[in-house]
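Need a sequence for this fold. Nothing fancy.
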């Protein structure tokens, strides 16, 4: 039997799909991700199955839609004994390992409380991981310890870091904090949370000696807010040269979740130059992560593993970044919905771009196929490997799925190449419809346009109704909001 390939799945938090040099962004600096795309397939229409961390990560791990696994918000938590593509890959003979922010559970969930990520190792082992170096997101470091906070404490930097994070959080909670007023990270560049994550991954790869092939998840906590990029990376950008994005308020009718995000974003008084400035801070975090991705790729090459290692780059969801006067996510606008997906096969290929619709379920199916592991049962994912292997000249090179689904906070969305329809998941009442061909910036919610009733009906009858037939109503009713 041929030697099985290694797999490195690099997964960042809150990286917009349009914010890469290799997809034509005019400003963001991502030379290493661009190089990765030049040696693989860049899937430019990859969408998250939920524009929120925990639901999206549950879908990625379990290969299930939100309405099936029931993790609708960040206040819900899946059982570590749930189905898991990682466990199946482990059982196929892989040494599975994780470095970074898993965000598979919440503080105090189901009576559990925890102070250090090491206390949840048994849960991650049940998910299928053998090697575990778990971190939290930046704000969670205020109250929760991890190998990263241990590291900062040894260097005498923990109080400085936590004071910075607390000041940010208090300002945000009071409504006085603004993204564009955030000072740069007060730590040395090499001690930033994303730097620590990348360096730990480099060391892991360099020191790997087991005979088994490995499946390594590298889960960068950034570029999730706060946009605490170090000054070095902010200096790579000039705010006056930043694209402004969709600097317009969304038009009525507005679903409740859009109103919620508008309210908490706190951008009602944001000026254009402030929006451009906050974008430089966000791009700075992306460039920092990109630099460490370059170091990871170099470690793979120096270890002599490039010829037998698949490398995937992806994220959980996007970031509104001032579009429609919003920050964060939990909406189905393209800024929050679309995410990067680059897949580089062992040894690399001549890079090309696939515009077919794809999602997290497809990534789980792809990882299973790469590892020759047992497929997840009743999985609606379509492996991306045939697309990659058949190449850009195949008649179906630009086709993967007819539609994709994304869900959050009790709402479900279906998107095809042209239209995007959102409904209330339990009643199936339509609340949003966008025509992406005539309105690519999603400025007009035409859900009540009688001329589009045939479009709504096709999307409902052919896609959403069969899709929501699988909804776990008990978990839906128990959703904590």
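Here you go.
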């Amino acid at each position: 039997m041929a030697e099985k390939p290694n797999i490195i799945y690099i997964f960042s938090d809150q990286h917009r799909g349009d914010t890469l040099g290799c997809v034509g962004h005019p400003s963001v600096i991502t030379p290493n991700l661009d190089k990765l795309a030049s040696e693989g397939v860049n899937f430019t229409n990859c969408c998250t199955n939920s524009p929120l961390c925990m639901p999206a990560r549950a879908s990625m791990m379990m290969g299930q839609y939100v309405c099936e696994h029931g993790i609708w918000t960040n206040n819900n938590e899946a059982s570590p004994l749930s189905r898991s593509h990682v466990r199946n890959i482990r059982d196929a003979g892989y040494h599975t390992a994780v470095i970074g922010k898993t965000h598979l559970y919440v503080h105090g969930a189901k009576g559990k409380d925890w102070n250090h990520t090491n206390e949840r190792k048994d849960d991650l082992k049940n998910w299928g991981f053998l090697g575990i170096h778990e971190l939290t997101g930046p704000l969670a470091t205020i109250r929760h310890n991890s190998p990263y906070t241990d590291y900062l404490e040894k260097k005498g930097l923990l109080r400085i870091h936590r004071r910075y994070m607390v000041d940010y959080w208090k300002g945000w909670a009071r409504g006085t904090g603004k993204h564009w007023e955030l000072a740069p990270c007060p730590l040395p560049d090499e001690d930033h949370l994303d730097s620590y994550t990348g360096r730990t991954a480099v060391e892991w790869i360099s020191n790997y000696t087991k005979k088994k092939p490995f499946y390594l998840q590298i889960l960068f906590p950034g570029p999730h807010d706060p946009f605490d990029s170090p000054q070095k990376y902010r200096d790579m950008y000039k705010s006056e040269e930043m694209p402004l994005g969709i600097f317009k308020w969304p038009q009525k009718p507005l679903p409740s979740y859009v109103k919620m995000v508008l309210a908490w974003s706190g951008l009602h008084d944001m000026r254009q130059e402030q929006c451009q400035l906050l974008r430089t801070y966000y791009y700075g975090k992306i460039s920092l992560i990109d630099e460490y991705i370059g170091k990871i790729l170099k470690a793979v090459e120096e270890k002599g593993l490039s010829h037998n290692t698949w490398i995937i780059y992806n994220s959980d969801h996007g970031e509104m970044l001032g579009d429609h006067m919003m920050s964060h996510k939990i909406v189905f606008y393209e800024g929050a919905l679309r995410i990067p997906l680059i897949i580089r096969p062992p040894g690399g290929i001549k890079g090309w771009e696939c515009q077919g619709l794809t999602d997290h379920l497809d990534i789980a199916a792809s990882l299973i196929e790469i590892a020759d592991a047992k497929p997840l049962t009743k999985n609606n994912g379509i492996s991306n490997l045939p697309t990659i292997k058949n190449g850009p000249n195949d008649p179906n090179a630009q086709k993967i799925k007819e539609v994709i689904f994304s869900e959050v906070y009790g709402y479900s969305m279906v998107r095809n190449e042209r239209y995007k329809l959102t409904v209330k998941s339990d009643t199936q009442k339509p609340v949003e419809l966008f025509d992406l061909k005539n309105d690519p910036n999603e400025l007009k919610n035409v859900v009540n346009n009688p001329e589009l009733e045939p479009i709504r009906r096709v999307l409902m009858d052919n896609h959403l109704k069969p899709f929501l037939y699988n909804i776990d109503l008990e978990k839906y009713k128990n959703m904590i909001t």
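For context: The CA atoms of residues 237 and 280 lie 6 Å apart.
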